[in-house]
Amino acid sequence: MATTERDYYELLGVPRTADDKEIKRAFRQRARELHPDVSDAPDAETQFREVVEAYEVLSKPETRDLYDRFGHAGLRGGGYRPTPFDVGSLSDLFSAFFGDDLFGVGRPRRQRGADIGAEVEIDLVEAARGTTRDVRYAVAVACATCGGTGLAPGTQPTTCPTCSGAGRLSHVQDSPFGQFIRSQTCSTCSGTGHIVEHPCETCRGAGRAVEEQTLDVEIPAGIHDGQRIRISGEGHAGMLGGRAGDIYVHVHVKPDSRFAREGNDIVSTVDLTMTQAALGATVTVPTLEGDVELEVPPGTQPGETRTLRGRGMPVLQGFGRGNHRILVNVRVPRRLSDEQRALLESFDGSLDSDAYRDDEGFFDRLKSAFR
Q1: CATH assignment of 116-143+205-253, among 3.10.20.30, 2.60.260.20, 2.40.50.140, 2.170.16.10
Q2: Would the N or C end of the chain have less CB density within 10 A of its end CB?
Q3: Does residue 165 carry a pLDDT above 90?
Q4: What is the mean pLDDT of the chain?
Q5: What is the mean pLDDT of the segment spanning 297-317?
Q6: Three-class DSSP category at 156
């Protein structure tokens, strides 16, 4: 016999007066604890086989009576041999003993509905402020007529005659290595355990119907292009009353020709004439919040930047904002009249070397602009 001479009642942790329900409950608990896929004990498989053997003996009146009167010797004398089984399938073991399985596989179970993907497009200014968009999508909802059961009102499903409501069929197969229990979904009821003889006419037994719906989606300020917004419970309805899936809204932020986004900072350019750069000027520049007046000091060089603090993108789900960096571009006239050329030459001749002193190199200014 596979086990040592340990007391079967002790193995299951029940008194000798335990009834069938107590023995069954104790076996389920011990089997879950000792299964080799769960327990880390080095002798888990041996203990598991002992518990299975104990239950096999104590769950049958004839073998339990024989064991109570004569012990292990009485079982051996009576020709009892433990049933071989596959340790790797705890679910099949429970199917063999109880007609169901440990994890409910094959029983009708609630299933979560599928998720839905949707897309929405906004511009950069809307991404900075946050906005709301109407998103249209097709979604499977619970049928209003049958409430998601798939049954015609006033009817009930019948128990599947093939699997007797279990949803699965188990077969014991002999092999050179012992007996193996194979379990498969019942083909008659597709694993539900029941047959719908009078399906709902509205949904034709599906329990769900597809509808066009519109959802107001709040897009938070500071969102980046390509990010998704998850809206819980607004996806396809679940099966057999399961919770609905989610909606994932993919947000596309359209490029803005006036700005470039770098993280939470905004970068733009401002064009100055050669005269404005030399003499200084007040120019109008666009920002995410509208046009503002920018003071440009005399002697402004190409590639210099001016920073508007806190005028960039809001920090998504945080505090504060980035900056708006403005890169200065100085425009040089391409065509001059003879008189204008002469004036410029006269002006250039009147300047000394100190007029063009470099406080910062051109490439240093470029690095500052994109730092």
Answers
A1: 2.60.260.20
A2: C
A3: no
A4: 82
A5: 92
A6: coil
